[in-house]
Amino acid sequence: MNMNKIMKDLQKMQQQVDRMQEELAERTVEATAGGGMVRVVCNGRQEIISIDIDKEVVDPDDVEMLQDLVLAAVNEALRTSQEMVADEMAKITKGVNMPGLPGF
User: What is the rounded distance in angstroms from the CA atom of residue 28 to the CA atom of residue 25?
Assistant: First the structure.
């Protein structure tokens, strides 16, 4: 194995990963719960960008339901964002064969 080629390939891959992370920070996913009553937007850094709650779902006598809806929407948004990142990472690492390195 040519170590210089491996190092160049790794540097190129790191640049691609850096670029991908910048792009994913700008991309968003959306998840809803309660038939759209709670909507959560998350970016590719798994940061919650916004949470919108329909007034109709706000019931002071049933706070637990609202909490459950928010939790469900947030978890779904995060899961979808993680899948988006994994899909993009797979594009970068596709075809990489680095024996002896973890994950390859």
Answer: 8
Output the six-digit token pair for 95. Answer: 């075809």
Please give the class, per CATH, of domain 3-93: alpha beta
44-98 residue pLDDT tens:
999 999 999 999 999 999 999 999 999 999 999 999 999 999 998 888 877 666 5
Distance separating alpha carbons of residues 83 and 10, to the nearest angstrom: 23
Cβ atoms of residues 92 and 16 within 8 Å: yes
Separation of first and last alpha carbons in the chain: 15
Q: Retrieve residue 83's tokens.
A: 């899948």
Q: How many residues does the chain have?
A: 104
DSSP state of 104: -
Please tell me whether the overall predicted TM-score, pTM, comes out greater than 0.90 for this model.
no
